[in-house]
Amino acid sequence: MIDQAHGLKNILKRKTSPEGTPTSNNKCRVICISSGKGGVGKTNLAVNLSLALVQQGLKVVLFDGDLGMANVDILLGMYSKYSLKDVLYGEKALQEIVVKGPNDLMIIPGGSGISQLANLSSSQQENFIAELLTLEEEADLILIDTAAGIGTSMLRFISAAHEVIVITTPEPTSITDAYSIIKLVSNYKLHSQVYLVVNRVHSKKEAINVVNRLNKVAEKYLHLKMVFLGEILEDNQVIEAVRMQEPFILKNPHSRLSESVKSMALTLAGSSPKEEEKKGLEGFLKKMVKLLT
User: Which residues pair with 22 in a beta bridge?
Assistant: First the structure.
């Protein structure tokens, strides 16, 4: 595995200048969306937020990073014949598996891809990283929908991403599980802040109360800033949109639900990582390589 990792590092070195700075001027951001448990609306948020970011004029790639229960394409009513696994083994180029979603949203079906990266030969790994680096010129932002819970793949994505969004509901178990992720981020100093989204609330006030509860504990025990990104109201429109396989931001663009997600997108589009974190896609991949060795 050490030899394989060495090959990965070599190709990333060849992508940097003699001074050690990235050769690409495009600073593609990688944002990870996670949840402490399943069933809290994580993938629904990922899909609708991605589309809202596209509406902000950004070129967005939505990467289905749930390696076991990938279902981004299902929510969009699409079928993915190929996945990241086909790129890993050199059977397809990355551009051949990218699915064009609504409004030119680019979708990468994840399958079991990343989890198999460490098992490839050095040349296979190098080809795969070279393929991923082509996204640097295609996207302003990559949004990763991770698996729910605290698993290895989720932790790798959170560690390597530039920014993290954690979604929870007002249920005590959901809040506790979300706090578990936030605690890991703090304990291992993975990020200086985490964005919070509260789903299935009846008002913004209820969402803020959830955030305040988390902040109260965090201020006492953690060294981490939590930023309230927004809320998603309890609404049958969400259930209907899932059933119809059409994102609610497209099905009901002027609803309170959609306006809330658009507000989140506006916040993200207007912010950026700290200067030292602006490493683009190359920085994300370097971290992924380090975590796989």
Answer: 16
**Global confidence as pTM:** 0.88
| 48, HSE (Cβ side, Cα atoms, 13 Å) | 29
Residue labelled with tokens 């008002």: 203
Helix pair angle (2-13, 280-292), 10° resolution: 170
Strands (DSSP E) contained in the chain are 29-34, 60-65, 99-100, 106-108, 141-146, 163-168, 193-201, 225-233
Mean pLDDT of each 10-residue bin along the chain, 293 residues long: 50 50 64 92 95 96 75 83 82 91 91 61 77 89 88 83 96 95 93 96 97 91 92 94 94 95 96 65 82 69
What are the DSSP calls for 163-182, one per residue? EEEEEE-SSHHHHHHHHHHH
**What pLDDT does 122 receive?**
74
User: Which domains, ranges and CATH numbers included, belong to the chain?
Assistant: 27-77+138-292 (3.40.50.300)
**Cβ atoms within 10 Å, residue 264:** 21
Task: List residues bridging with 29 in a β-sheet.
Answer: 141
What is the bridge-based pairing of β-strands 60-65 and 106-108? parallel
Q: In what order do the strands lie in the sheet with 29-34?
A: 99-100, 106-108, 60-65, 141-146, 29-34, 163-168, 193-201, 225-233
